[in-house]
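Hello forum,

I keep getting stuck at the same step: I have a sequence, I want structure tokens, and every attempt I make locally crashes halfway through. Rather than fight my setup again tonight, could one of you with a working pipeline run this one for me? It's a single chain of 181 residues.
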Amino acid sequence: MTKRPSKFIGTLYAFKFEGREAYGICTHEVIDGWGPRLGQLIRFFEGTAPEGARSAPDPETAPVMFWAFVDLRRFLRLGQAEHLADCGVPEHMQGTPRLRQGLPLLHYSEADPIFLTEGLGDDAVVVEDPVSEAEMAATPDLVVLDILGVSDCFRYGLTPERQYAIAHGTHVFDPVRDALF
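Reply #2:
Ran it on my machine without issues. Output:
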């Protein structure tokens, strides 16, 4: 995890795509160390609004739909994100993140390793305690997204539980929402 203060952590952003806005808060950053520079960890809140509506949710109470790492500097430079407010990281989001890794994108088999890690960057450790199926499904994937990936997560309602169910073949598709999926 970053050892120096970051201007991004604790800041609320609007992410723009397809004439809509989604809102998220930067809670952590991985840009140094020996491991990959994942970028900024954004917790995206449920729902979108028409672009320019500025109906940003309250980070203290708004439900989080999913987490993802993004290259926030690039998003801001390209106009795909906009700084809304410096609000600080809510207390319930300050802890060490736990993320799911190893989840196959297209095909699942029992032999595929799926595991949880706690911490970020060089400080990440594999969780060795027993983990329930529900906890595994509810834990967000360690993923880096561009604006199209963020857009798809909102378009298809890709919460961690839904992504897990799709990968395991246990998801029941909604014929209207999932027509193009």
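The two ends are 35 Å apart (CA to CA). If your local run keeps crashing, start a new thread with the error log.
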